[in-house]
Design goal:
Structural class of chain B: alpha+beta
Oligomer: heterodimer
Largest interface: A-B, 27 and 32 residues
Largest sheet of chain B: 7 strands, antiparallel
Keywords (chain B): Membrane, Transmembrane, Transmembrane helix
Protein name (chain B): YdbS-like PH domain-containing protein
Radius of gyration of chain A: 21 Å
Strand content of chain B: 25-35%
Number of helices of chain B: 16
Organism (chain B): Lysinibacillus telephonicus
CATH topology of the largest domain in chain A: PH-domain like
Mean pLDDT of chain B: 82
InterPro entries (chain B): UCP026631 (IPR014529), YdbS-like_PH (IPR005182)
Strand content of chain A: 25-35%
CATH architecture of the largest domain in chain A: Roll
Strand order of the largest sheet of chain A: 1-2-3-4
Shape of chain A: elongated
Helix content of chain A: 40-55%
């Protein structure tokens, strides 16, 4: 069995994902409200109203509680001397291995919500792909970015 | 300065213009057809303005294209200076581009019909940086002598660089020796056309045109004709269908000949040169060290007859986005394929024994399909009750193809080389070296985890987005071996 990767996303990351979930749910709630309004207004069968509410509740529970939890538990990463390994996914867990030699540049980015929580995303680009480690504490993200770019510089193509 | 400044051939103005017009054709045809072919040129008639305005716009745009073509030719200048190819163009916004000769990866030639009339050539200059599908510079039309001069200058600089770095260039003489790797005969081309799916494509195209022109076809008349036609018996129907296929086949042979006529692969000084084309001649150069991966693509028909297509994934594109995959051998017998490849890329081991997915993985290939098959079958059965149940038969081809995918999948590791085999409908054998892999992913769903099964996917650079290959539902143990194999690259 392969060893579990060492680092997890900070707990605050989960909170932010939940917050995103709240926004998504609000949007769904709006649609449900429109649906209920139309049902009442045009005297459609009550069943439609019922289904809309159930869908709304399911969307809320999954996108606020369940999915962020699973995703948070799956997200792990490790930056070693010669490679970066990232594990992510909801139902399908993907483990990505990026040789350090292939890293072309590293970015950190931070939107308004992430800024409020003092978090930042790191994205690692190779010549063909881009990989993201999300929701790191800003200072950690900056350190990690510096470390990756340092390691990528010294990594030599020995093949 | 002693440098000569060169212009493009004046024909390039016309070529630019025609290129612009080509983009206009489709919207023009759409509007023309939408109007029902009856344009009125009488100002008193109703709908005159509605008809004439688009026409005016089109003629206006074509005039603009004509002028921009002329201006582009007028302002375009290139010259050689300080071991660089320098290009400037533009009227209001002047663009200057200096390309050092030793950065030039390849010069690709293209001769369209216009070019061939004046024995000109279009030269596309590519560097390592031009991965976004756009070449560094395009010289729309220059004489062949001028093209040779560019090539000569480039080589001259590269050779002096080689000598400076202490490497002895093997030949001091001017003509570099080249050896022919592959050439396609007319018989090969016919075979290529026959086994390609273009027969189907042509048939589909005819069908699409027919449905588009449905208004023009008097269907009632056709139906009467057809019903009387059936009375003549099955033989004639069969002959007609056969004739239709034969016609489609002829068209596809014709298309293949236009595209692939005189297909030749030549190796010259660590570069591959691929030439092809009947009306429009193309010449693509790929430096061998820019090759990222080799792909064997066998569609079921070709696999049956033991033929394969060999495609090269190159870091630099051929001609724009559509050609980022460069076909090395459009059609070659599997027995003969290894010899030229061995000669070309001796570092690879071509024929390897594969490690297959375990037996327990078999259900994973087709299980997912029930997710979308079930609803379709249920809906069809419910709404089209008696006949809809037949949709159940859909399961058969889907399961068969999944089963075939299971049978085809496999991988092999040989030193620094990874071979992945998988099937969509064609079987794809993907051969890549460790130092070309940009990223590797292993994927595992909850169900796969329970049975210790996982899938693997590798991505290499190819054009801008890269391209990936996968092998699904291998033993978890095997995917871990592959992952560790990539890790080890730097630890050794």
């Amino acid at each position: 069995m392969r060893k579990q990767l060492m680092y997890q996303i900070p707990r605050k990351g989960l909170t932010v994902w939940r917050l995103y979930g709240v926004f998504k749910t609000l949007f769904v709630v709006l649609l449900v409200a429109v649906c209920i309004f139309l049902t009442v207004f045009f005297d459609w069968p009550v069943l439609i109203e019922f289904i809309a509410v159930v869908i709304g509740i399911i969307a809320g529970v999954t996108s606020i509680w369940l999915f962020p939890k699973i995703r948070w538990e799956h997200w792990r990463y490790e930056v070693r001397e010669h490679e970066i390994e990232i594990q992510s996914g909801l139902f399908i867990v993907t483990t990505t291995l990026i040789p350090m030699v292939r890293v072309q540049h590293v970015d950190t980015s931070q939107g308004p919500i992430l800024k409020k929580y003092d978090l930042a995303n790191i994205s690692i680009s190779t010549a063909a792909t881009t990989h993201i480690i999300p929701m790191l504490i800003t200072s950690d993200a900056d350190n990690l970015r510096a470390r990756i770019s340092e390691l990528a510089r010294v990594a030599e193509d020995d093949v | 300065m002693s440098e000569n400044r060169y212009r493009l051939h004046p024909v390039s103005a016309i070529i630019n213009f025609v290129k612009g017009l080509r983009e206009l054709i489709i919207p023009f045809v759409i509007i023309f057809v939408a109007n029902g072919f009856n344009l009125s040129f009488n100002p008193k008639e109703e709908g005159f303005w509605a008809d004439i305005v688009p026409l005016l716009i089109f003629s206006g745009v074509s005039v603009i294209y004509l002028f921009s073509g002329i201006i582009k030719w007028w302002t375009f200048v290139y010259w050689f200076e300080d071991n660089e190819l320098r290009v400037t163009y533009g009227l209001f916004v002047k663009k200057k581009r200096f390309i050092p000769f030793d950065r030039i990866q390849s010069l690709n030639y293209k001769e369209g019909i216009f070019h061939r009339l004046f024995s000109l050539v279009q030269v596309t200059v590519e560097t390592a940086g031009s991965t976004d599908g756009k070449p560094e510079a395009i010289l729309t039309a220059i004489t062949k002598e001028a093209a040779n001069t560019i090539e000569y200058e480039t080589r001259k600089v590269k050779q002096t660089v080689d000598q400076n770095s202490g490497k002895l260039t093997e030949e001091g003489n001017e003509k570099p020796h080249n050896n022919l790797i592959h050439k396609m005969s007319a018989k090969d081309l016919v075979l290529l056309a026959t086994t390609s799916n273009s027969v189907g494509v042509v048939l589909a195209g005819v069908a699409a045109v027919l449905t588009q022109l449905s208004e023009l076809i008097p269907y009632e008349w056709v139906f009467e004709e057809v019903s009387s036609f059936f009375k003549y018996g099955v033989a004639i129907v069969a002959v007609t269908i056969f004739a239709a296929f034969f016609l489609a086949w002829l068209v596809s042979v014709l298309i293949t000949f236009i595209n692939y006529y005189d297909f030749t692969v030549v190796e010259e000084e660590e570069r591959l040169i691929v030439t092809r084309g009947l009306l429009e001649k193309k010449r693509i150069t790929i430096p061998l060290n820019r090759i990222q991966a080799i792909k064997f693509v066998e569609n079921p028909l070709r696999q049956l007859f033991g033929y394969t297509t060999v495609v090269v994934e190159s870091a630099s594109g051929g001609f724009g986005k559509n050609d980022k995959q460069i076909t090395l051998f459009p059609l070659i017998s599997k027995k003969e394929v290894y010899k030229p490849l061995q000669q070309l890329l001796p570092q690879f081991e071509w024929d390897v024994t594969l490690i297959r997915p375990p037996k327990k993985a078999k259900p994973f290939f087709y299980r997912v399909d029930f997710l979308w098959l079930m609803p379709i079958i249920i809906i069809c059965s419910y709404f089209f009750f008696p006949l809809g149940i037949l949709s159940f038969l859909l399961v058969v081809p889907v399961i068969l193809i999944r089963f075939w995918q299971y049978k085809s999948t496999g991988f092999a590791i040989r030193g620094h080389q990874l071979t992945l085999v998988y099937r969509v409908i064609s079987r794809i054998t993907f051969i890549v070296e460790k130092n070309r892999i940009q990223a590797m992913e292993s994927k595992q769903s909850v169900f796969q985890k329970r049975r210790n099964i996982a899938s693997i996917q590798v991505t290499v650079m190819s054009g801008m987005a890269g391209t990936s290959a996968r092998a699904s539902n291998l033993n978890e143990h095997d995917t871990e071996t592959i992952m560790r194999w990539l890790e080890k690259s730097s630890l050794e």
